[in-house]
Amino acid sequence: MTTEHQFPRAATVRRHLHSTTSPREDQIPWAAMAGIIATVTVFAVAQGLTYPLLSFILERQGTAPGLIGLSAAMTPLGFIVSAPFIPTLARRVGAARLAILCSTLAALILIAIAWKQEVWPWMSLRFLLGFFANPLYVISETWLITITPAPRRGRIMGLYSSIVSGGFAIGPLSLGLVGTQGWPPFMIGIVAFPLCGLIVLAVVPRLPTMPHEGEATSVGGFFARAPLLLFAVFTAAAFEQVVISLITVYGGALGSAEARIASLIACFTAGNAVLQILLGRVAERLGSTRTMLFCALASLVGCVLLPSLFNAWLIWPLVFVWGGVSFGIYTMSLIQLGERFIGQALIAGNAAFAFVWGIGGIVGSPTTGLAMQLIGHQGLPSSLGLMCFVLAVFLMAERRRG
């Protein structure tokens, strides 16, 4: 992957992984995995904290809702712009050095955000926060996929997705403890990013040495190699962003109270976090492609049932499962990435995932909002259902070709 941790040729990697990632319990690098997952979880806490915190501050300042939304979009835009540079930077600078550098720069950017609490300076600062945070996420995820034994990839990637989802949920919850005024809430993120760098330093000696070989792959080149996989990531990202941002509008149109809608969002997020381990185990038995198809179809069924069940008690189990299977599409994408790609193509794939996730997060809500303006509040389940239907059709077509 990098100077001290580079990728070997495909055959060499397969031999190396076969020899070092036996399915036996004593061969699984639990310490390294725990360190990598901890790194991304701490990152998720910091990211999950900043979105609501900065929105609360801007709202108190009387900022227009449109500007608040534009400000929030700057961080995923930073993800998108930085993604194509990550494979090259990882090769030239070194994965560990790049991760530590980015964690330090992200902390400095967050200090600047806390110091200058104005909407227009925040536009560029939030963009830079996404730009510098993204490589830390991509590199850590690539390391985890690389060292995960194939026979246990499903459950470990499911565990990873669950823990990281929990990290994103802890971020907003922490505001209840420290409030949204002054420096205390910012200090959580300011401390979290350097902590990520320290964890990386501790984990690096436990990671396998990978020499600098293997075919270099760009993010653009990966699009040509796995378009359906990237469409699945787009679907998962758009689905999550649309539900979290627009279910309030949908519920309000159906006469639901704000407190009930907020609880439904929490239930959706809980399903997202809790069900990934189970889906990972299912993927180990049935295969990741078949499990992804199940997730897409189950998400589609949820879209169909949402209008009739929204004001009934059955909405609670529906939304819980809906959250799990919709994010399960992304978990299955991670599993497939590890199954199909190795070496430098793997880090390019993870960078492409980050790029597409950012696109899905930015495009999903405005597109669905437009649909809701054109055809009414049922534009939300209709838009989400259409995406899931298209993904399911493509997955079935790929299975038949295979």
UniProtKB/TrEMBL annotation:
Can you list the GO cellular component terms from the UniProt entry?
plasma membrane
Q: Which residues form the Major facilitator superfamily (MFS) profile domain?
A: 27-400
- Asked if the Swiss-Prot or TrEMBL record annotates the protein with the keyword Protein biosynthesis, the reply is no
Q: Where in the cell is it found?
A: Cell membrane
Q: Which PROSITE patterns match?
A: MFS (PS50850)
Q: Name one GO molecular function term.
A: transmembrane transporter activity
Q: Which residues cross the membrane?
A: 30-54, 66-86, 98-115, 127-147, 159-180, 186-207, 228-253, 259-279, 291-309, 315-335, 342-363, 375-397
Query: What are the UniProt keywords, alphabetically?
Result: Cell membrane, Membrane, Transmembrane, Transmembrane helix, Transport
The record, for InterPro entries, names: MFS (IPR011701), MFS_dom (IPR020846), MFS_trans_sf (IPR036259), MFS_YcaD-like (IPR047200), Tet-R_TetA/multi-R_MdtG-like (IPR001958)
Instruction: Quote the protein name from its UniProt record.
Output: Major facilitator superfamily protein
Q: What Pfam families has UniProt attached to this entry?
A: MFS_1 (PF07690)
Q: Where is this region: Disordered?
A: 1-22
- Which membrane topology term applies here? Multi-pass membrane protein
Highest taxon above the source species: Bacteria
